[in-house]
TrEMBL record:
GO molecular function terms noted in the UniProt entry: fatty acid elongase activity
Organism listed in the record: Cinara cedri
PROSITE patterns: ELO (PS01188)
Top-level class of the enzyme under EC nomenclature: transferase
Membrane-topology annotation of the record: Multi-pass membrane protein
GO biological process terms, semicolon-separated: fatty acid elongation, monounsaturated fatty acid; fatty acid elongation, polyunsaturated fatty acid; fatty acid elongation, saturated fatty acid; sphingolipid biosynthetic process; very long-chain fatty acid biosynthetic process
Chief location: membrane
UniProt superkingdom: Eukaryota
Compartments, record wording: Membrane
Upper classification of the organism: Eukaryota, Metazoa, Ecdysozoa, Arthropoda, Hexapoda
UniProt xrefs under Pfam families: ELO
Transmembrane regions listed in the UniProt entry: 26-47, 68-92, 112-134, 146-163, 169-191, 203-221, 233-253
Keywords carried by this UniProt record: Fatty acid biosynthesis, Fatty acid metabolism, Lipid biosynthesis, Lipid metabolism, Membrane, Transferase, Transmembrane, Transmembrane helix
Enzyme Commission number(s) of this protein: 2.3.1.199
Annotated protein name in UniProt: Elongation of very long chain fatty acids protein
Amino acid sequence: MSALLDHVQGGVQWIHDNSHPLTKDLWFMGSIWPVTITLVLYLSFVLKIGPELMKSRKPLNVDIYIKIYNIIQILFSLYLLREAFRLLWLRFDYRFFCVEMNKDPDVAKEQVFTVWLFLMSRLLDLLDTIFFVLRKKHNQITFLHVYHHAIVVSLAWFIINFYPGGQGAFFGTVNSFVHVIMYSYYLLTIINPEYKKAWWKKYLTILQLVQFVITGLHALLSVMEPDCDFPKFMMYLGISQDIFMFILFYDFYKKTYSTPKKNKQS
C-alpha cells in the first residue's frame, strides 16, 4: 500500500514539476487533483446521486437559470473567438499546420490565458447535464453526452497544462464557433419550445460532424508538418478522439433523423 501511495505521490509531483510555467499557477492547473475531483463529482452526481435525489421529486423549473446560462455561454464563446483571431489567426507570424507559441512573451502570455479560459468554458459546460438531472430529462443523459463533456475537459486540461498555445488552439477556435450556434439554439428553445421541432435542428448535429472532420484533418496534416516541435502523440490522440466522436455523433444522427417514417409513426 505504501508503495502505491509513493507512486501516486511521485506522479503528482511529476505533474507539478513538468507543468508549463505560464499555466501552472492558474486556477485548476499545476495539479491533477482539482480537475480530477471536479470530474468525479460531476460523474457521481449526474449518473447516481442526482437521479436518486430527483426520483421522488417533481422536475424543477430552472428555465430562467438556463436562459442566463445560455446567454453567458454565447458571450463567452464569442469572446474566445475574438481572442483567437486577435492573438493568432489574424497575425502573420505563425504556421497554420504548426501552431506554436508566439515568441513575444507578452503575446504568449495572452495566448496561454485565452486557452485557459477555453478550459474554464468547458468546465462550465458540465452544467448542461446537471440541468438535465434537475429537470428529470434522463433520456438526454446519454453515453455520448456525458463522455463528450468529460473527455473534452480531460484533454483540454492535459494540453493546456503541458502544451498551451499550441495545436489545440485550432480545435478551440472551431469548437467555440460551434458553441455559439449551439447555445443560441438552446436559448431559442427555452424562449419558445416550438423551435425544438424546427427543420434546421438536424443541421446542428451535421455542424458538429463537420467540426470533427475539420479538426481531424488539421491534426493529420499537422503530423506531417516538418520541423514542428508540438508532440506528435498529442496529434494522434486528437485524431483518435475526432474519429471516435464522429462515430458517436453519426450514430446519434442516424437514430434521430434517419429513422424510417414507419418506425417514427409507430
